[in-house]
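@channel anyone free to eyeball this complex?
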Amino acid sequence: DVKVTQSSRYLVKRTGEKVFLECVQDMDHENMFWYRQDPGLGLRLIYFSYDVKMKEKGDIPEGYSVSREKKERFSLILESASTNQTSMYLCASSSRIQGKLRETQYFGPGTRLLVL
Amino acid sequence: AQSVTQLGSHVSVSEGALVLLRCNYSSSVPPYLFWYVQYPNQGLQLLLKYTSAATLVKGINGFEAEFKKSETSFHLTKPSAHMSDAAEYFCAVSAGGGNEKLTFGTGTRLTIIP
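replying in thread with the prediction:
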């Protein structure tokens, strides 16, 4: 089974703190994604990586950065957390190899972040 | 650019009744379409996926969806609701053919009435 793990299920931080959210997948997937999920807004893509050290902005990248130094790990960084970044953060991964599971995204359990 | 509209942010059905969750898409190219389910305090899990093969797609837990190009729809159905179906459901679209990014709808929360 594909497994995507996220470093924390719940996190409480203060305004202005630097926050790191870590995601690890064990299926050798090329693609990794960070989303935020808010009630009534669904999932919105923050950043996307299709290879080590490669990244692409999603729909809402402002206030976030990412790092992908190893294929299995994709980190989301909030340089200076703000209260409007309180949200559920979901990591996902997918394969680029041809086959019926290509492009199917596999999700981690999510990190619920509260910024005070 | 692709987009997805899910009609009805909340749907309630009685146990044993038909489940119908609506999804309409917009895409400039033949789309790939997905339904995901999210149970409380969990990540998203794939229910089913359409990739231009059969227009009627069967998924897990008795769910199925039909791709209707003329209506730009991909509605999710289940003949008989079970209490364990209570969850939030998301429709998503991608351009397919190697475009790995998904665009998600805003979700529909399904409540099952005993």
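from a first look: The interface with chain B takes residues 4, 31, 33, 35, 40-45, 48, 50, 58, 90, 92, 94, 96, 100, 103-110 of chain A (CB under 8 Å).
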